[in-house]
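Page 42, continued from yesterday. The earlier attempt failed because a stray header line got pasted into the input along with the sequence. Redoing it now with the clean sequence only.
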Amino acid sequence: MAGTSEIRKGLCIVKNNELWVVVEFLHVKPGKGSAFVRTKLKNIKNGKVVEENIPAGHNIDTARVERRKFQFLYKDEMGYHFMNNDNYEQVTIDGDMINNPQLLKDGQDVEMLLHAETEQTLTVDLPNNVVLQVTYTEPAVAGNTATNATKSATVETGATIQVPLFVNENDFIKINTETCSYMERVKQ
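This time it went through. Structure tokens are written below.
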């Protein structure tokens, strides 16, 4: 149990027997009436985001969760295979739990959110950005640069990303894993 003064971003709470993460919060003291905390909660299982006002002083059920480092090994018909960096145990995760799994590269480190009591994996978080090599893209056409034009490029993991016209095959590019979008070209 925790009080409303302990609400913070990233706190995991139990509501209606489901796990929710606090995405945003704001302590509100209106001119009339009692104080409350305005929160945005995200359901860990289905990703649904709801807004909820919690009266000040109200107790909330918190869930104990742990973040652990894992390394991506490979993907097959059973799912995505990861290895715990601490004890070398392997786990298999369904692709639905991973945001943009097409950006996973063999040997890449990720962070998993686990329910501490049941050891159940809740989410798999990729780093904020990854650097991948372009394996295929069409060459740029001269005179086609008057606007902010883009073209498709396939990277080493098989994902297709929209990139600027100056990006060529074998270039390394930085990709935002949240939006699956091009950020910049990287020298290797």
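Notes: The chain has a mean pLDDT of 88.
Reminder to self: strip header lines before submitting.
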